[in-house]
Amino acid sequence: MTESLFDKLRNAEMKLTASLMDTIMAATQSVRHMFGEIAQGTQPHAAPGELTVALRAMLEGRGASQDGGGMATPVAVADEGPDWHTLHAAVSGQNVAVPAVAASGTPAMTANAAAAAAVDLSKLQPHFPPEGRRSTDRPGAAVSGAPSGRRADEKAAAREATIRVDTTRLDQVLNLSGEIGLTKNRLTSLRADILAGRTDSETLQALDQAVSQLDLLVSDLQNSVMKTRMQPIGRLFQKYPRIARDLARQLGKDVELALIGEETEVDKTMIEDLADPLIHLIRNAVDHGVERPEERLLAGKPAKSVVRLEARQEGDHIVLIIADDGHGISPERIRAKAVEKNIISEEEANTLDDRQSLNLIFLPGFSTMAQASAVSGRGVGMDVVKTNIQKLNGAIEIRSEPGKGSVFIISLPLTLAILPVLLVLLGEQPFALPLSMVREILPIDHQRMQEVGGKETLVVRGEILPVIALSRLLGWPQLQQPEYGVLMQTAERSFILAVDNFAGRDDAVIKALDDFRPRGVAGVTTLSNGQIVLILDMKELLADLATHTDRDLRNTPARALEFFS
């Protein structure tokens, strides 16, 4: 029936309306659930009767967009199960003969009732079959006692562990590996010449050229391997129009979700981890950001609001933009709400500029809604969004203009396999800090430090920030006064991390420690001189500091070296 609807729409025999689109989307969702049940080794359930009624009503021109008045024409509705043989053949690839099945009739339903069924599609819920029926069982066959949950979990895990790669990219990797092999042979030959005492300028020049060539090839190979993990972000974007549309209908708003840059490629792991933050930001834009049509008309705006979801690559970063043309966010209102909820004091609120005020929405427990609804208003969500973005080594920024709308800008690295870090020194021991959390580097003037509530603080551009020594976080004795500070920003707070010195910036290849990983350590990396460096997890370190958890990581680099040797 859905195919017949598509055929009529294609031939311009029917006009696409909101109610018709609702019916088609419900039918699509029902078919997806059927195939999902087959994939889990269970017999699919029939589509809900209300959906069948709605499809027939739409197909016969009696949908919710039509006038339901006048004489009621009976509509015969068949209680049809799924075309089991066809579905099973499609999934298994078998050539199964399809027997003719007679549909049993049900009592007639009037066109008005059918139209009502087409409207009330929000009540339709996916039906899940009882666990244990195998996909090879015919309808009505005995239920197998073998559990299918574990099989479904294994199949899902297998899907997560696999990725489709363009053969062109694999060919590039193969060609580069071949060239690296040739360069290695050249280096082996030059090594033999040098060991034999042939160290003339020509040999040394050839060695320099071979090393430079190897450096270029390894860099190209690294980029090519990274590209095999890249996937178009459009596969993530494609499910958001339905979410925005359903929520807008629920709230009585007219919203268009504009998708831009669906071809932009990002790391596959990042695509999976971005799903929830983007859903929350889109729902926030539809719920909080844009106005109802009548409010927009009074404000001189078009009745239909636009929420823009855009992705683009800028250098070695991916930029995601979620923008709306709604009423925007008032910094004054944000400050007043934060004071009302005792999140900040009135004195602190008076020191905040507009940018700092807008960033208050990322604090736990903050919400501008007077009452919580089924959609939002509980004060959870934006802090989780920022935390999840920072876990991806990214950053989120908000810009808003009252009356014109808001823009959320997410900046992410191209891949999670390489992490830009700032190398700091504690004595002679280097540690790596995620660069995404670093706002700036500044010298520490101990004469300007003040004690507030038993904690050392510094005032930076009117902002009072706590100073936390790295040695204190790690449980090391403080052998000297720290000379430098790193102004860092987590989802919960800003603070100054006091360190002895800096060793520069690096792009770290992260090596996971798995079960060996101590708290406060995200992983390790190796410097060009072979030294093992810990990549610190600042969130865990700060949490342990708040709970007075003791730690001593002095031996961890040595243990990590043993672990990887």
From TrEMBL:
GO terms for biological process: chemotaxis. It catalyses: ATP + protein L-histidine = ADP + protein N-phospho-L-histidine. Residues 418-547 form the CheW-like domain. Residues 126-159 are annotated as: Disordered. Its EC number is 2.7.13.3. It comes from the Bacteria. Residues 150-159 have a biased composition (Basic and acidic residues). One of its GO terms (molecular function) is phosphorelay sensor kinase activity. The keyword Nuclease does not apply. The keyword Cell wall biogenesis/degradation does not apply. Residues 184-416 form the Histidine kinase domain. GO terms for cellular component: cytoplasm. InterPro entries: Bact_Chemotaxis_CheA, CheA-like_dim, CheA-like_homodim_sf, CheW-like_dom_sf, CheW-lke_dom, HATPase_C_sf, HATPase_dom, His_kinase_dom. Keywords: Kinase, Phosphoprotein, Transferase. Transmembrane segments: none annotated. Involved in the transmission of sensory signals from the chemoreceptors to the flagellar motors. CheA is autophosphorylated; it can transfer its phosphate group to either CheB or CheY. This is Chemotaxis protein CheA. It comes from Candidatus Accumulibacter phosphatis.
